[in-house]
Amino acid sequence: MGSLANDTALEINGSAFSLNPLDPEEFRRQGHLVIDFLADYYKNVHKHPVRSQVEPGYLKKILPESAPNQPESLETILDDITNHIVPGITHWMSPNYFAYFPASGSTAGFLGEMLSTGFNAVCFNWMASPAATELETIVTDWLGMLLALPKNFLFSGGGGGVLQGTTCEAILCTLTAARDKVLNKIGKDQIGRLVVYGSDQTHCALQKAAQIAGIHPANFRAVRTFKSDAFGLNPEELRKVVSADVVAGLIPLYLCPTVGTTSSTAVDQLPGLCSVAAEHEMWVHVDAAYAGSACTCPEFRHFIDGVEGAMSFSFNAHKWFFTNLDCCCLWVQEPQALVNALSTNPEYLRNKATESQKVVDYKDWQIALSRRFRAMKLWMVMRSYGVVNLRNFLRSHVKMAKLFEGLVLADERFEIVVPRNFAMVCFRFDPNKKDQTGPELHWVNELNRVLLEDVNSSGRLYMTHSVIGGGYVIRFAVGATLTEERHVRCAWKLLQEHAEALLGEHKRLQ
Fold this sequence. Notes:
GO molecular function: pyridoxal phosphate binding; tyrosine decarboxylase activity
Pathway: Alkaloid biosynthesis
Helix content: 40-55%
Cofactor: pyridoxal 5'-phosphate
Shape: globular
Family: Belongs to the group II decarboxylase family.
EC number: 4.1.1.25
């Protein structure tokens, strides 16, 4: 790798600019090189340590201090990617990746992303690229029907869908719409009375969105959940908290139930929660970021029963629907609420199509002005695999999670901590099986923390943890596109080996 030279004469006389940045034939040649590189990466990704083993600051020690003054060949750059970048990647596409939630990519998702990037359209309104807007309205209706969403969430029923980047954006946009809808009635100066509700299992994106939207930090409620409810939010617990706020003169604004929480994939009790919210005219946004994909299968659809009582619903197609990052699908019953809160109409964006009110301008449904042609990759995924295969891909991951769950249950030294709903298993190593309180709970928590770090440090698989009800649990999330049953069995064998070694070391030190 070269570094910036002091030869400014070449810059001035222009000889440094002899290349065409978008020459079609050179694009073709280099494109083939990159595709071959990635195909080999996918073929051999299982050979890499799943969690990157580098130390902080490793790359700064390797790369030059400044950019090269002269062009370098793609071949040289790809060599550096192989030698310096790949070791610093945590390999989300590895079949041995079981951490967080999956980022399930696919050939169709990748090719759709290529097309979107290749067209490089900036799709802020209909006029900027009509096909991008119209395809988005079509694919969100397709997917909404696949989820059996109520008709008033679809364009065909007066609602509509939009593709955001992430759930964080979906929550912020709908919370902003809810905020403005209420403040327009009671006065902007009343924002200090507005209250936002989730559970103690709700993703931190809700609290972040509340901060950005100007909700007073003291008016954010994380309602307690209980093991008896499998850590799903109970309507009666919500009612108690809301009632106390009303008595205190506060205004319940926004509720975010979750279908498939990050910690344990718990499912909040939608029908009852929506009923409580309706009593106070709260906006309900259902966050199904992970589990929404599974709800396209009829046997899982019941988890979102009650969604008809919500104002908005979202899930991440980039998590478990084989659509490469980023692609969060958001549906709203009242699109005008988004438009009222998020639209700007400067002179330089005025055009006949917008003024006809016959088109959707998605700039008014999101935070930013500019937006990408995300619909292309989602459209390609749905067309390339079809509904039958997409559902069966999801079912195969659930089947592998059930297999892992059975292996855990068959070993008396381990236990399942919470019921499995989808394709993630929460478990822990507890060889003593004593009452887990006080010192014993601390010992079990520390034992599992060390076990997880030992396994992850091996590089052979990667899992993450959470703390639920005070207990440290290990999360095993099946969903990587390349994962097969043999990878699950190998993961379990590795876990047992490390657990036995850890227990042996503990006994030796006693």
